[in-house]
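#struct-pred
JK: can someone run the complex with adenosine-5'-diphosphate? inputs below
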Amino acid sequence: MAQLIVSKFGGTSMGDAACMLRSAEVSFKQGSSLIAVSATSGTTNDLIALGKTSESQSWPEAEKILCKIQDKHIKIANDLTISQGAKDKLHTLFDEMNSLAKGVHLLKDCSVKAMDALMSLGERMSSVLFTEAMSQILKKNGSSKTAELFDVRTVLRTDDNFGKAKPLTSEVAALCREHLSFLKDGKHIVCTQGYIGMTDEGMTTTLGRGGSDYSAAILAEGINADVLEIWTDVAGIATTDPRICPKAKPIKEISFKEASELATFGAKVLHPATLLPAIRKNIPVFVGSSFDAEAKGTWVRKDVDDHPLIRAMAVRKKQVLVTLSTPEMLHAHGFLFQVFRIFNDHKVSIDAITTSEISVSVTLDDSTLLNKRLIADLSTIAEVAVEENLALVSLIGNNINHTPGLGKQIFEAISDINVRMICLGASKHNFCFLVKEDASSEAITRLHRSFIEENAEEMA
Ligand code: ADP
Ligand code: ASP
Ligand code: MG
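RT: done, structure tokens with the ligand placed:
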């Protein structure tokens, strides 16, 4: 039996008709069985703007954004010369977008639930167009397979945490068995949406920004895929973000553990949760460029051949440092329990943490501060200080906590940059520290030179 391959294409790979046809050609060559696509690039941001504008400004202002979104999709539809059936589907989605935006405008209320319904339209529109592109590529190549549009909400059951819903793994597996088992016959290519899901009550949810990677991984787990492919605008996972450091180079192979750290600590190329399902089912993940499918790309696997001390580095911007201090922590117990209970009650995830005898500091995404009750609740147990405009810089590799001299090399490279907090020891794969956000790119550039570029020169 042929391999079951799940492929995901991101927003830039859906950018216009040419991008869609190129991505469909990649899928055809790879033999993808199930393809999850993102919204066309920029559309999710436009839909968010539509929600906010409908809520707070005049209807003509909202209508301008509506028209912009429609025009962009109509242009792709015309360039692809799509079928009448697909045109009808697209116009039904335009009507839904109009009604939702009008509802938000009349109520002057864009709840997270309403925003999820609006944002889901991005992936629902792009998948209609991509299915047409896929059909054309199959026909062009004389394939007997058929491309079928599938509403991912049929199988991607989630909880009701709108805006960042959690997939319900066992429900998804059962629904995939019920609705997608036919994929095994190798006659069909299912084209579906990334990013979106549905609650038990039938409400549309989203998995959080950049969540299409995660959707594809959940679907790969659900159908027991042999391979998960993430097709994007760069030729694989690089030693750091090529936008920060042009000398970043693609990594051939990286372990699940290292890649998970990299994604969690800011490498946008993978949504942080993407590797969880792949790890659970030991599904190898390929990351490649839909613009240059011949480039080697990166394989992410459980076991890899080499284990360099520093494989890659990442930066996670928009961080705040929250420091809680209380003399009551002196020789006392239970304080950290109270702190974590409050974070847990607010469903807030902490990235890095350090403690002293009477204080504890944690890093959080700055969006967390929008929740005023969190700080109010923390203030009931300690004095709270918040520092903003910070970034977490991470070095990812192997045996990091057992290598003498590593700290020296790191701090020599960035000797004139103030380091606000350091985290080392919890993971042998990660060393991270906090700097002012405006110094973070410089820190990455210097560390990349010291650990990756100079290392490569020595080996040459
Ligand atoms: P997509 O729309 O395909 O999901 P994203 O913009 O979410 O694409 O992710 C791809 C981007 O991730 C790249 O253009 C690159 O700037 C950024 N990126 C950050 N860190 C890395 C890294 N280590 N390797 C490759 N790309 C990275
Ligand atoms: N379209 C969504 C976003 O822009 C999800 C994704 O592209 O992964 O965040
Ligand atoms: Mg992405």
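RT: quick notes.
The two ends are 43 Å apart (CA to CA).
The longest helix spans residues 112-140.
JK: thanks, will look after standup
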